[in-house]
TrEMBL record:
Taxon lineage: Bacteria, Bacillati, Bacillota, Bacilli, Bacillales
Gene3D superfamilies (UniProt xref): Jelly Rolls
Family to which this protein belongs: Belongs to the pirin family.
Domain Pirin N-terminal: 15-118
Top-level taxon of origin: Bacteria
PANTHER family: QUERCETIN 2,3-DIOXYGENASE
Entry-linked InterPro entries: Pirin (IPR012093), Pirin_N_dom (IPR003829), Quercetinase_C (IPR041602), RmlC-like_jellyroll (IPR014710), RmlC_Cupin_sf (IPR011051)
CDD domains listed in its UniProt record: cupin_Yhhw_N (cd02910)
Domain Quercetin 2,3-dioxygenase C-terminal cupin intervals: 147-232
Protein name: Pirin family protein
UniProt source species: Paenibacillus nicotianae
Amino acid sequence: MFTVYPSAERFSFDRGWLQGSHSFSFSEYQDPNNVSFGPLRVFNDDVIAPSRGFGAHPHSDMEIVSIILEGQLRHEDNLGNVAVSSFGGVQRMSAGTGVVHTEHNASDETHCNLLQLWFEPEARGLKPSYMSSSYNPASLNGQLLPIVSRQGGENQATIHQDMTIYLSRLEKGQEIKFVQHPDRRTYVFVIQGSLTMNQEHLLSKHDAVRIEQETHLQMTAEEPVFFLLIDLP
């Protein structure tokens, strides 16, 4: 089953210093029929103005992943972690029993664009932790590159949930296949460009599709495309 969510149907906002869209019920956008997809609870696409950001605020019992698309994101928390990430960088925070952090655009000249995803952890009350990782953007070409997974690995962030986040770039006409277990879910989001799922469902920039009970997925680039795929329980 494929359920397509066009970009125009997401909740979008503009606060001046922060522009973005929410794919799930979050903050001022409240929709009891669109709360989560499996353990995926938040999928935000944010653009932060130069030298602006989120002041100190708490989190608990949530796995928070930030994928930087443009600019520089600075993270600091009460665990003593400080990091600045740019394109190719990923930040993962396990809030566990509680953590306080800030997020800011590290540049005073250019904006910062990131995807921020929140996942329910596999267990509550975990010890809070943080890590940053990076991948080679050239490695995205023509394949699904894992950047976050439960087991971790080279150039991957680990996460306390049975899931994997992949990124990929395809040239026009290229296709890639993904084999999924029938009891698992798949989430696909187009960052740039457009692709067709299983020769039937067209996804353009910032469209998403939530997939259940499908074992064979085929993604074909209608034009050069940059997209994200999440394998979820």
